[in-house]
Amino acid sequence: MHCPFCQHDDTRVIDSRVSEDGTTIRRRRECPSCTERFNTFETAELKLPGIIKSDGRREAFDEKKLRTSFDRPLQKRPVSAEQVDQAVRNVMHALRLSGERELPSMRVGEFVMNELKSLDHVAYVRFASVYRSFEDVQEFREEIEKLERDLPGLDKAQLSLLEANVTKGKGKP
């Protein structure tokens, strides 16, 4: 590896450490010419499938776009950065396991929805409203009812998504 400071064509590894999740190796290096030290990070480069957009365009997988699809619905929700990182890794793992060279973007969206469903139900409904292009409040209500039906014990895990009893003068749910 070339030294980023003096461009010497060889550096030596002083220390190597594996990251907590086991996906990255950090190497501490030193240049024998200028004695500067720096870090490099090594990760496995795995080819992810290409994405076929709904209009037929094809594009390379972009991890930043995947992360954005989690960050937006999870905005101001009580979910840690570590949980989001794990969800992104889970989706990427599912994409690799698919064995496909190309996948429709809708399939990626389904993977994201599955992860959001287990992370945060409000974020799940937020994502679903955009992903499925909800047209009115009734579609929101149907998705929430489906979520409550599919996940027994949901009422104990998080606050109710729809009020069970509406008090007088407060309007309809």
**Total strands:** 6
How many domains make up the 3D coordinates?
2
Number of helices: 6
Radius of gyration computed on alpha carbons: 23 Å
What does this 3D model show about the protein?
- Helix content is 41%, strand content 17%.
- It starts with 11 loop residues before the first strand and ends in a 16-residue tail after the last helix.
- Strand 2 (24-30) and strand 3 form a beta hairpin.
- The strands form two sheets. The protein has a three-stranded antiparallel beta sheet with strand order 1-2-3, with no helix packed on it.
- The chain is α+β, with helices and mostly antiparallel strands.
- It has helices at 63-71, 81-98, 105-119, 121-131, 137-150, 154-157; strands at 12-18, 24-30, 37-43, 50-52, 58-59, 102-104.
- It is elongated, with a radius of gyration of 23 Å.
- The chain folds into two domains: 12-43; 50-156.
Topology:
Elements (H helix, E strand, L loop, with lengths): L11 E7 L5 E7 L6 E7 L6 E3 L5 E2 L3 H9 L9 H18 L3 E3 H15 L1 H11 L5 H14 L3 H4 L16
Parallel strand pairs: 4-6
Antiparallel strand pairs: 1-2, 2-3, 4-5
Keywords:
3-stranded mixed beta sheet, 3-stranded antiparallel beta sheet, alpha+beta, 6 helices, 173 residues, elongated, disordered C terminus, 2 domains
Task: Summarize the entry for a quick read.
The chain is of the alpha+beta class. The protein contains 6 helices and 6 strands; from the N terminus they run βββββααβαααα.
